[in-house]
């Protein structure tokens, strides 16, 4: 099938030929509405007129950055990786990603479950919503997807086949290399205006800091531990009281274990900083700290648990080591993942301050002085994370750094 | 073209259709002779009857391990990676690999330069030949091929394209994972008989040692720094007084910087151990140590030199860091490569003692007592390398370990 960009009128024609979707809706009449902020893609909600609760999402990539226009080309192949990652995550643990009803790589298009009762987690955190199941659910999602796509579980050939499926996600990996690890730490046209900003100047001259960012960039580029979401901030999580759902994995690739965990950790921390500076709600801040701690410690426990349930793998041949030594090895291994996560969290926290893609809870603070205060705290936490990540021992040390920064 | 195994009579038919080869030989009459020990592949020498100095090598893979037979299947796709690596290495630095005159992946076949005046380096070392150009030439080959296939030079997309070309060399990567990093350190049917060997028992119970082997195995499996030869022992080097030529890169894949260097270092050390125990030729031992030192230090200097000549890369965006900090970063970086090389050398040294693939200079020692002595020294050096590689500072420390072991 040749690629054709759909619009509101042709969307329904397209799905009339898709059996799985027609089966879902039965004989109902359908309506298509364009929804979403659509930075990159076109998103339509397909709804049954007879039963408005029956609805699906159709998402199609265009070969450019939608919010800028055709003069900013961006390969629509990114949708291939989103589709493949959604399907892979669903196969590992169906509860935490939207179900894919139909996917078509030629058309750069996916039709999936509509999450009607969920909101973007970043918004919920801004509004001080306490998500009781978040740490339990996200720790399961991340432990499962990271463990079961790694060489700790897969055979050597299955791991290489997985790499094959994601290795060519070149453009979006390059975007991360540039935006997460480079441009936000130097004078660059993509940054927000930093010309007269003394803090920006100080950061751009902090060579000790930047050398460590470079170490982590190299790890991001060359360490193929497991399948990552690749952009797992709180805007990529749809959530409600009972469910947590990960969306938009178009940056997916096989990369270092610590990256997704670090990105999520960073975004939880930036929410904490927002509440420190703006709402000053101590109870909510406590809940955020507790959630960070629970998320990180449950992740580690579950990852180790999946490992203990798993048979021999590419890495650990049956009979190679006695069980006691294997257990010690695993504990060391998970500690290294944890440390790298703290390093990557530092990258994510700090790149959001001057880089092109800010986060609402910091860049969105309207009062200039409060925003500057929040940025200062974020950078202070990032620096402490980065300077100490290789030796950090446990979650409490992280919480201390976060609480003490002001 | 469909795959067909050639034999002595059909080889000449095949090349009569290959223009580049026919151009090389002109109107000469040709003769085909099967040569080589042929563990894995069939190798023919094609010679001009009019001018016997005009000759090429034709090498064809069969879909099984030739020395065992069809009951041991091994995908003939391994030849694809050999062809691709030879061509890539040649493109980077033509002096150090045989020139490919014709390659055909469908036929799992390559026709290349015949090296008439070279011998296998391992044999030369056994016979105490001092190769004056070895360290100079091999350090150039390895610095160039490793640097120019890494993210320190390539763009992000070129690096991923390179990974694409080698990622599916599954079977041979798996062989290395098993044979270099696992089976040789445990009771396993592929090992030489270790039942009553006290030293083997001791090694197999040395959990401290084996945990470190596991760390390096994980690095081998997941760290994609640069294109490796993958099996660069002294039997993969053809050499004479003036030239050094690397052959047989069928294990090629994108892996950790230190692996090839470590394998070569290990094989030079095992030659040193042979001469310590068997010939006791102090002058030759000195030459070996000097060669090791020169090879390692020249490699580091040349790698840094290529780096300083290279423009910005996937890793180092122009303007990100000041030059002084970049220089410090590079020095740290090359030290990590050096340290990993020592770690991988330990794996290679020790896996050759009880593993299925021994090296002639150790396993070939006929006197049982001398062989046991040599094996003991090899294992001692390997253990010291492995226990100290993360902190080793310079080449002299390595030479001290090698000299002091007895």
Q: What key phrases describe this protein's structure?
A:
five-stranded antiparallel sheet, 53% helix, Aminoglycoside 3'-phosphotransferase, Chain: A, domain 2, 13% strand, Phosphorylase Kinase, domain 1, alpha+beta, 406 residues, three-stranded antiparallel sheet, homodimer
Descriptive overview:
Two copies of one chain form a homodimer. With 406 residues, chain A is of the alpha+beta class. The first copy, chain A, has two domains: 8-113, Phosphorylase Kinase, domain 1 (2-Layer Sandwich); 119-404, Aminoglycoside 3'-phosphotransferase, Chain: A, domain 2, CATH 3.90.1200. In chain A, 53% of the residues lie in helices and 13% in strands. Chain A contains 15 helices and twelve strands. Chain A has helices spanning 8-16, 19-25, 78-92, 121-126, 134-148, 156-166, 170-181, 198-204, 207-222, 258-279, 282-309, 323-354, 360-363, 368-388, 395-404; strands at 30-35, 41-48, 55-61, 64-65, 69-73, 100-104, 109-113, 119-120, 226-228, 237-239, 244-246, 253-255. In chain A, the strands form four sheets. In chain A, strands 1-2-3-7-6 form a five-stranded antiparallel β-sheet, sandwiched between helices. The first copy, chain A, has a three-stranded antiparallel β-sheet with strand order 8-10-11. Chain A has a two-stranded antiparallel sheet with strand order 4-5. In chain A, a hairpin with a 4-residue loop joins strand 10 and strand 11 (244-246). In chain A, helix 5 packs parallel to helix 11 (282-309) and helix 10 (258-279) packs antiparallel against helix 14 (368-388). The longest helix of chain A is centred in the last third of the chain and has 32 residues, at 323-354. The relative contact order of chain A is 0.12. The mean pLDDT of chain A is 95. Chain A binds chain B through residues 151, 156-157, 159-160, 163-164, 167-168, 170-171, 173-174, 177-178, 182-183, 185-187, 207, 210-211, 214, 217-218, 221-225, 314-317, 319-322, 325, 328-329, and chain B through 151, 156-157, 159-160, 163-164, 167-168, 170-171, 173-174, 177-178, 182-183, 185-187, 207, 210-211, 214, 217-218, 221-225, 314-317, 319-322, 325, 328-329.
